[in-house]
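BUG-171 | component: ligand-complex export | severity: low

The export step for FE2/S2 (inorganic) cluster jobs runs without errors, but we want the raw record kept on the ticket for reference. Input record follows.
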Amino acid sequence: MAQGEKQQHPSGDNRFKLLDRAITKHQARGDALIEVLHVAQGIFGYLENDLLIYVARALKLPLSRVYGVATFYHFFNLKPNGEHTFVLCMGTACYVKGAEHIQTALEEHHQCKFGQTTKDNKVSFITARCVGSCGLAPVAVLDDAVVGKLNPEESIKRVEQLKNTPREVLA
Ligand code: FES
């Protein structure tokens, strides 16, 4: 890939655009790996394989190095524990539109704090910074689907649906 050429993620997921911005800010320098991984985790909630590959390509680093750093530092999460993920955006637009109320309602309803997984291992609740869909605030990413204009009641309903959906149905 030529210098300065932007890779585009085939999923069209807006969150990769935000990650690209951070990579550009650091001029795609390999020594910015930890900062870029921090941003990636902030946007996506955790660092799955696809994301590590994307970062490795963008920074022109061997995947083994990126994987090594991501596994070495305890503050990086490579996988949520739960069968499903509910990533709540706590960026400014979502926060202003009530993301905090969604967080409180879900924590009370499921007796599970964000950053943790429900006791039945069904859903991991994760917070993220802006996920790139501010116009739909407040937003959450349920597994791979962005859901906007949420409120506490709707969020509780969505999580119940998620819990009752086998992971492979969503794949
Ligand atoms: S602040 Fe939530 S999508 Fe931008």
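Assignee comment: Attached the raw record above. Residues 89, 91-94, 130-134, 137, 139 surround FE2/S2 (inorganic) cluster (CB under 6 Å).
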